[in-house]
Sequence to fold (153 residues):
Amino acid sequence: MKKAPDFSLEDQNGNLKSLKDYAGKWIVLYFYPKDNTPGCTKEACNFRDAREQIEIITGAVVIGISKDSVASHKKFAEKHNLNFDLLSDPEHETISAYGSWGPKKFMGREFFGIHRNTYLISPEGEIVKEYLGVNPTTHAPQLIKDLTELAKK
Fold:
């Protein structure tokens, strides 16, 4: 297991949040490409709908990170009634620190962008599981299954 990289980023309300603010809790930290796009909306809404169950299992918090602005995150969160923090990383420093920034292909075009990855971080601040290139429609149920197994240990 490796230590989760620290971060200090603004949430959708302009409040500064750091990894240490969540110390002692399980964290579902997910990276997504862009607010209000079909896949990202589906993923966020799935996390919204599963958050209570995720919280009941291990007390875990859900945090989403993209390079969208605080204002964009606020509109996205309000539009879809999101019940967790969305952090803005416009310089993609945290996104890069977690290995979620890199080359992508879309419609034959190559560019750099955010990979849809999720990291499960233990209360001790260690990454215990990585989900790389996740499917936004099936990801939340997989996380719930894994958190349930971890909670039994």
Observations:
- The chain has a mean pLDDT of 92.
- The longest strand covers residues 61-66.
- Strands lie at 2-3, 8-11, 16-18, 27-31, 61-66, 85-88, 101-106, 109-114, 118-121, 126-131.
- Helices lie at 38-58, 70-79, 93-97, 139-152.
